[in-house]
């Protein structure tokens, strides 16, 4: 672990970022143009003391999970992320960690979306990051680990995952998820994580195995759908998707036409928050 270089690199990346780069207000009385240590710590979901010790060459060796969180918070490119791992004394990110690194271009767009649900997903349906409005709509998924991070896996193994869709639309959604997974398999190959997920679900779910035999291939999102909120009821939303160049990640934005009932319900999400999930799961 190269403590001096790690500290200098973290400090340099932090000082080069502006609050607006990460969706934060500049606020008054800001002496330096860059981010404060406490802001980076909050973005990385770690204590300010822990992050400060890293910059002061006093901290313990960060885990892979901590480094991945720092790379995301500091909006590092894939090359910068790999460099961060190396100077921290860790091997190059594993395929799982690398796949979870949010594309900076998508992150910059997400940072500017605060008044409507928006989230960034991998092509295996893993939520990499989502804003507070998406938290209120879908629930906080940051605690999920392993295959449970994939909405495709949860759909076929956890009945509760289907509650957010009207019953009459669940068949279409299941087919869409499987078709999207086949598209991911085509680009990633049978020995990839996509292939592994197919093998896991084929054993775990007869429904998945049956749908897989249809050999349908398609992108997973439709332009218009209805989502069900336990307190607000049905919400009709339009879905817009922005893909990275390699199609490995996507930014999903949910909106509703102005002055409609659906638009009012989306605004109420900010009031309802995520507390309702405690009582339904």
TrEMBL record:
Transmembrane segments: none annotated. It comes from the Bacteria. PROSITE patterns: HTH_CROC1. Residues 30-81 form the HTH cro/C1-type domain. InterPro entries: Cro/C1-type_HTH (IPR001387), Lambda_DNA-bd_dom_sf (IPR010982), MLTR_LBD (IPR041413). Coiled coil: none annotated. Signal peptide: none annotated. SMART domains: HTH_XRE (SM00530). PANTHER family: BLL4672 PROTEIN, BLL4672 PROTEIN-RELATED. This is Helix-turn-helix transcriptional regulator.
